[in-house]
Specification:
By secondary structure, this protein is α/β, with parallel strands linked by helices. The chain has one domain: Metallo-beta-lactamase, Chain A (4-Layer Sandwich). It is built from 10 helices and 14 strands. The chain has a 7-stranded mixed beta sheet. Strands 7-8-9-10-11-12-13 form a 7-stranded mixed beta sheet, with helices on one face. The longest helix has 18 residues. It is globular. The chain starts with a helix and ends with a strand.
């Protein structure tokens, strides 16, 4: 009998190992803070998008899933948080309301305002971990309605420190790092996610690459995947001075990285598109141009194994 039990135990263990899956990333949205289309827009593309849902895009956000521990983390709580959480449930196959934590990049509307759905008027969550840098933490704690989330313990804010990794479990760690951006209310950070020897960098918002104290080329070379700011495709895209919103143009980024080998270019995924960007307007010529150069465009529902 002992031998039979041992055999059954070994078979079960082997089966569990086969079924076990590595952590993975899910893209929950690819749009700029105000979404695609954007409120008040009456351009031909926006008019088409309001009528046809297939042209709409949720706001930029990613999720990290560890099937082995049944844990899920979301990076940036967007205005589309309810629909994105549901999408995450469907993709992960876990329909509980369990959420191991939320990592915030900064205090612009597309990146933290979804926290409101954790409040008593909505999900009325209990102590959801929100990872935030010092100024971001203070902003949430001292300004309504966010301060109420803290007061009644819908959320529990955990402070982050630049370049100090947060160990999520035995498989995963996340490291925040500063990037230059319009920091009216908080710092702005990107994140490096490390799992099983692989690493993914997430930078949805940054000013021009030249303002950063890191070289983008080095970041690409030293990581397996890089999801970066693709807000605008080129200069002249909006009807105001684009120096007021100094994101790196996709055309500038592809030029900056043009000398990288194809294997490195293939690591790059553009995300966080403004509604004016031809890449989010399904401009076949521009899409083909970016892909011909060896780069990728993130898409909603995309999965990346780590």
């Amino acid at each position: 009998m002992n031998k039979i039990l041992l055999i059954l135990f070994l078979i079960g263990a082997a089966f569990s190992t086969i079924k076990a899956k590595s952590p993975y990333l899910v893209v929950l949205g690819i749009g700029q803070d105000a979404g695609v289309p954007q409120i008040g827009c009456d351009s031909p593309f926006c008019k088409k998008s309001w009528k046809d849902v297939k042209f709409r895009q949720m706001v930029s956000s990613i999720a990290l899933v560890d099937p082995g521990t049944r844990e899920r983390w979301i990076f940036d709580a967007t205005p589309d948080f309810p629909a994105q959480f549901q999408l995450l449930k469907e993709i992960s196959g876990d329909f509980s309301n369990g959420l191991a934590g939320i990592f915030l990049t900064h205090a612009h509307i597309g990146h933290y305002t979804g926290l409101m759905y954790l409040g008593r008027e909505s999900m009325n969550s209990k102590d959801v971990k929100v990872f935030a840098m010092p100024r971001m933490k203070t902003m949430l704690e001292t300004n309504a309605p966010w301060s109420q989330l803290v007061k009644i313990k819908n959320i529990a804010i955990l402070p982050l420190t630049e370049n100090e990794p947060v160990k999520l479990n035995g498989n995963l760690r996340v490291e925040p790092f500063f990037v230059p951006h319009r920091d009216e209310f908080s710092e702005t950070v990107g994140y490096k996610i490390v799992s099983n020897g692989k690493s993914l960098v997430f930078i949805p918002d940054i000013d021009k690459w030249q303002k950063w104290n890191q070289k983008l080329e080095d970041i690409v070379k030293s990581n397996n995947y890089v999801f970066i700011d693709g807000t605008f495709f080129a200069d002249g895209e909006i009807d105001r001075p684009m120096s007021e919103v100094p994101h790196p143009f996709v055309s500038e980024t592809t030029e900056l990285l043009k000398d990288l080998p194809p294997s490195d270019k293939a690591k790059v995924f553009f995300i966080h598109f403004n509604y004016t960007n031809p890449l989010v307007q399904d401009d076949r010529k521009k899409l083909k141009e970016v892909r011909r150069k060896g780069f990728n465009i993130a898409f909603q529902g995309q999965k990346i194994d780590l």
